[in-house]
Amino acid sequence: MAVLRPLIAGAMALSLSGCGVVNWFGGLWGDGGAAASGLPYSASLTRGEDRRDFTVEVNAVGADLSEARESARFPATRYCIETYGASDVDWVIDPATGDWAVSRSDRGLVVSGRCTAR
Question: Can you spell out the DSSP letters for 50-89?
Fold first, then answer.
């Protein structure tokens, strides 16, 4: 029985690595940055006065929205899941374009959204 326990624990660890659980736990001890996550740019999320609201600044000077969209989407999804348990986000939309409202900062692009799950 004593020999069987390490084998079972090893099998469980290998099975969890396939579904991303091990990578999720690795993120608890620090973020490896954009390159480690496979995203094109790094991004930082700032929570609004209402905890559901947030702003994401993508560090991508000269990039357009289509290049930076996933880099903004990732921290927003993670924030909503960790805070509210679901990934639903309503992005602030520019009425003129029907697409995400974007402003530029000295470091790149800024988009805003709101977690919708309760």
Answer: STTEEEEEE--TT--HHHHHHHHHHHHHHHHHHHHSS--E
What global pTM score does this model have? 0.67
List the domain range (segments joined by +) for residue 7: 1-30
* Domain shared by 97 and 81, yes or no: yes
Q: Quote the longest CA-to-CA distance of the chain.
A: 68
- pLDDT tops 90 at residue 118: no
- For 52-108, write each residue's pLDDT tens digit: 999 999 998 877 777 788 899 999 999 999 999 999 999 999 999 999 999 988 888
Beta-bridge partner residues of 90: 114
- The pLDDT mean for the chain works out to 78
54 and 84 fall within a common domain = yes
Question: Which among 95, 102, 42 has a CA at the least distance from the CA of 113?
Answer: 102
16 and 38, same domain (yes or no): no
6 contacts: CB under 8 Å, gap ≥ 6: none
Reading the block at residue 106, the tokens are: 């000295």
